[in-house]
Design goal:
heterodimer, A: 421 residues, alpha/beta, FAD/NAD(P)-binding domain, 2 domains, 4-stranded parallel sheet, B: 238 residues, mainly alpha, Cytochrome Bc1 Complex, Chain D, domain 2, 13 helices, 0% strand, FlavoCytC_S_DH_flav-bd (chain A), flavoprotein (chain A), FAD/NAD-linked_Rdtase_dimer_sf (chain A), FAD (chain A), Sulfide dehydrogenase [flavocytochrome c] flavoprotein subunit (chain A)
């Protein structure tokens, strides 16, 4: 997509003039506002600020002061990371890259006037808006569960206090008790995530509560890295994990949080911990802005990550319909770099190159038993399409699995430095 | 020194006789000439039934062996990583390594600049092969069918990279490889000489190096894109 920059800036200035917003008329520098400071938003903020070298003003609006990564939050549950090690602050983006970091909630966007307003009453004009809100849950997707019940039956699918709560509940399980996971339908954040989580819960229980049981209620026929996880579960946690797929009622489940009961196709199970991961949709703000379609996610231009609804807005990460790319922190980080390049190209004279995307997801099954899956992608007219991919093999030797795990530690250090500086 | 060379030569001749009987050994090269080339190696490496760890690991049984698998030898981190990634010494990988060690193992501690002449390499490989347990079981291609790896023309090596494009492409690398050169679990790629970077990436692209993520990343990069990346990462040292 090519853009007529002069026309575009003309419209932006006209928009400003019509407003009483605190945007300076005739402002020389273009302004990019980014909503959401996760793997997509933080990366975009850093890359636009860094690569434009001061030619673009960047404002990042993110409600939390400390961001806990969803990736590696399972390793915290398994005892392989401490909680502090998955928390990150935005100080480096502000001090080293000059990003204006605003801890506030976005409550409104005027797409015609090109302004964003926040709960604290501030208004920010933009030349380009980047929306990276992550996911929210589809209310009613697991009958009996709602966000109001998230302390009794945690989702822990957004990292932070929910992750700590789930870990505490698992550690407090009675001897021989049952941990139940209600797994989500496709599409959802982090396809191997539920099964890595089961592995980490099993790792904890095997040491502290070896007669405990794990029950997965799953609406899906198949899941990511299935052969690898099942091989690992048989090897490390034989007899502990049971998965009820759709053939046995896994898609027909409801819960009663007060009674700690799970109804699977008419059979009621009493459980001790119930980890409900509901069906998912784009983060609320994307719906409020009108960027979603019937799928609940945001259609985008595969070459630039621009919204198909509004070319002044780019959407990143889990909130998007990203073709063959999975919803992952790695994907969001990859998409952010393409969007950052496209935004710089549109607002300054910087060169624009072909979009290249990639993703790799590492999962940990047990101590030093790491696996991975990944692919590279390119933009076609229809979608972000897979080019090439790979996956760990069953039966790999211990040295390779250990190297894969160590690689995941290196990746975590790499991507968090890439996001936050 | 002199003595060891002669000793090795004698063994090689013995072995060559056996190999010739099954009609395979001669296909690689001339083991007798290889024994003379072995002097480049023998300052650090031993070979033969009683070979021990010296400055380098012993090369007895090198064919079919996993890289970095001699117990007790203090391999470089780079070589150990290649071993756990699955690098195995075959005719093809040894040939590439002897031609230019940095093609396969960027951080190798072997201080050997490489043997350019393919005939010399073939002869040396024929010599080394005499000391692997069951040479007749080692598959090999006829010498004419054995290409140089990675296949790199002079033109490819001479490409001048587009640094700005390289900077954009590098953003795909820095999701895992840290710009500050940290080296935990994932190797550092900053401050590399451009040529080393180019040959390493082509070795992944042509699947000579084993790592699946890097094979995938490199396989969709054009020659120009690899040159651009090399130019960018090389420029970081200026």
């Amino acid at each position: 997509m090519t853009f007529n920059r002069r026309n575009f800036l003309g419209v932006a200035i006209a928009g400003t003039a019509a407003l009483s917003a605190p945007r300076v008329l005739g402002q020389a520098k273009p302004h990019v506002v980014i909503v959401g400071g996760g793997a997509g938003g933080a990366t975009a903020a850093r890359y636009i600020a860094k690569d434009s070298d001061g030619a673009i003003d960047v404002t990042l609006i993110e409600p939390t002061r400390k961001y806990y990564t969803c990736f590696f939050s399972n390793l915290y549950i398994g005892g392989f990371r401490d909680f502090a090690s998955i928390g990150h602050t935005y100080g480096g983006l502000a001090s080293d890259y000059g990003v204006n970091v605003v801890h506030d909630w976005v409550i409104g966007v005027d797409r015609d006037a090109m302004t964003v307003t926040t709960a604290a009453g501030h208004s920010f004009g933009y030349d380009r808006l980047i929306v990276a809100p992550g996911i929210d849950f589809v209310e009613g997707s697991v009958p009996g569960w709602s966000t109001a019940a998230q302390n009794k039956m945690p989702h822990s699918w957004k990292a932070g206090s929910q992750t700590q709560l789930l870990k505490a509940q698992i550690e407090a399980m009675p001897e021989g008790g049952t941990y139940c996971m209600v797994a989500p339908p496709n599409p959802f954040r982090c396809p191997p995530g539920p099964y890595e989580r089961v592995s980490m819960v099993a790792h904890v229980l095997k040491a502290s509560n070896p007669t405990a049981k794990i029950l997965i209620v799953d609406p899906k026929e198949k899941f990511s890295k299935q052969a690898l996880f099942e091989e690992g579960w048989n090897k490390h946690y034989a007899g502990m994990i049971e998965r009820v797929g759709p053939d046995f009622g896994g898609a027909n489940v409801s819960v009663n949080p007060d009674a700690m009961e799970v109804d699977i196709d008419g059979t009621v199970e009493k459980v001790d911990v119930c980890n409900v991961i509901p069906a998912q949709k784009a983060g609320h703000i994307a719906h409020a802005m009108g960027l979603t379609n019937d799928s609940g996610f945001c259609p985008i231009d595969p070459a630039t990550m621009q919204s198909q609804v509004d070319e002044n807005i780019h959407v990143l990460g889990d909130a998007t319909i990203a073709g063959d790319m999975p919803k992952s922190g790695f994907s969001a980080n990859s998409q952010a770099k393409v969007a950052a390049m496209a935004v710089r190209g549109a607002l300054t004279d910087s060169r624009v190159f072909p979009a290249k995307y990639s993703n790799t997801c590492w999962s940990l099954i047990d101590t030093e038993d790491g696996i991975k899956v990944g692919a590279s992608y390119q933009a076609t007219d229809e979608k972000i399409a897979k080019v090439d991919g790979f996956i760990s093999q069953t039966g790999e030797d211990a040295a390779l699995r250990k190297a894969t795990f160590e690689e995941s530690l290196g990746w975590y250090a790499g991507i968090t430095a890439d996001m936050f500086g | 020194m002199r003595e060891r060379v002669f000793f090795a030569l004698a063994l090689a001749l013995g072995g060559a006789g056996e190999g010739a009987a099954d009609g395979h050994a001669e296909a690689i090269g001339d083991a007798e000439r290889g024994a003379e080339i072995w002097v480049y190696c023998s300052g650090c490496h031993q070979i033969g039934p009683d070979a021990e760890i010296g400055i380098g690991p012993p090369l007895t049984g090198i064919f079919g062996r996993r890289a970095a698998s001699v117990e007790g030898f203090p391999y470089s981190k780079s070589m150990s990583r290649m071993g756990s990634d699955g690098l195995t010494w075959t005719l093809t990988t040894l040939d590439a390594y002897i031609e230019n060690p940095l093609v396969l193992v960027s951080g190798t501690r072997m201080s050997f600049e490489g043997l350019e002449d393919p005939t010399e390499r073939a002869d040396l490989l024929a010599f080394l092969r005499e000391y692997s347990d069951k040479p007749s079981n080692i598959p090999e291609a006829a010498p004419t069918a054995r290409p140089d790896y990675p296949k790199l023309s002079e033109e490819t090596l001479a490409l001048v990279g587009d640094e700005a494009y390289g900077e954009y492409l590098s953003s795909e690398c820095t999701t895992c490889h840290q710009r500050d050169g940290s080296d935990q679990g994932i190797p550092s790629i900053t401050l590399w000489p451009e040529k080393d970077f180019v040959v390493a990436m082509h070795a992944y692209k042509q699947k000579l190096r084993p790592h699946p993520v890097m094979q995938m990343m490199a396989s969709r990069l054009s020659d120009e894109e690899i040159a651009a990346l090399a130019a960018y990462f090389g420029s970081l040292s200026n």
